[in-house]
Write a structure and sequence with these properties.
By secondary structure, this protein is of the alpha+beta class. The chain has 4 helices and 4 strands, in the order ββααααββ. The protein has a two-stranded antiparallel sheet with strand order 1-2. It has a two-stranded antiparallel ribbon with strand order 3-4.
């Protein structure tokens, strides 16, 4: 389903097309996907930082994301949800001991 986004001085029409998992290896592709999630540059930077931390470390909790980007619990949770909906990360394990991981290649 196409999605319309309105910026301060622009309007964008976004078509979400799933990419084959093997293309997720390239940082440029990841940056491009994240850029399509929001028009706010500060949010895009935070999403890239979160994704890189998750892909490097794995088993990241919301509290870890809060410390990493200096945002509230609600904002951190929303950012994780954006990355999840983009198919870049997934939650594994129980609510108590589980965490966020990059989607397997």
């Amino acid at each position: 389903m196409p999605e319309w986004r309105q910026g301060e001085d622009s309007v964008s029409l976004i078509f979400r097309v799933p990419l084959p998992r093997e293309k997720y290896n390239g940082a440029v592709v990841i940056d491009h996907i994240i850029t399509g999630l929001t028009t706010n540059e500060a949010t895009q930077r935070d999403l890239v930082v979160i994704y890189k931390a998750i892909s490097n470390l794995g088993n990241i909790k919301i509290a870890d994301v809060q410390k990493l980007i200096g945002k509230s619990y609600v904002t951190s949770k929303r950012y994780l949800q954006l990355l999840k909906e983009a198919g870049l990360i997934e939650y594994r394990g129980s609510l108590k001991t589980g965490g966020w991981f990059a989607v397997s290649q």
